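My main concern about presentation is that the manuscript never shows what a single data entry looks like. An entry of this sort, consisting of the sequence and the corresponding backbone structure tokens, reads as follows:
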Amino acid sequence: FSISNLICENARSIKLKMSQFNHSEKVPQIYKLAAKCLQQFKEKGGSLKELVFNQRSFNNIKGIYALVTKTVQNYSQINDMFDKVGLLTKETRFNPWLARILATQLLWSDNGLCGNCTPIKIILSYRSELEKYANSNLKGSSRVMKPRYVRVNTFALTVDEAINGFINEGWEFVEHCGDDYNSFIKRISSLQNGQFMLDLHIKELLVFSHKTELYNHETYKSKSIFLQDKVA
């Protein structure tokens, strides 16, 4: 049995094994396009309807529009749920826009969510936790939402550098005078999107509105900041 025959036989064996490999199913096109529209709308603004209806290559435009609209309506709640279960922190390779779309399909669609692609499997693995928080939000929707706490990784940059970096991007730094805790709590509870403060007690902790989205921010991606509860 010649060496050349042995090489050919091994090559055929490898090729056969590769052809038998069971790849993950592709993400359904409706979810991919909905995630794309959601990202564009949140990052660039404009008309949501126009963004969606520009996807002329897809037949079910109304389905995309309904899905993205429902996601936008529940955007803050979805972010809060993801924070509580640590979904985007644990699933670091998960596209956050697709995750929000799939969560909406799971929690607020009459048809629910089904499929065997990896992103759908990930969302379904958090199903019980997401449903629990969705139901608790429904029962207590009038409660005050916790602000979003951001810890500066001082091994990567100083607190002043972090503050100045956000200011240079157009964020408004709100200063708090004095050390009265009750007035501080009242102030952070009224923070608007685009505003942030320095925590009263922990010098490397920044405080943002609960609606603030930072998963796509460069400082988060580079691990220069960490998202956390204040007690963490």
Observations:
- Residues 29-138 form one domain.
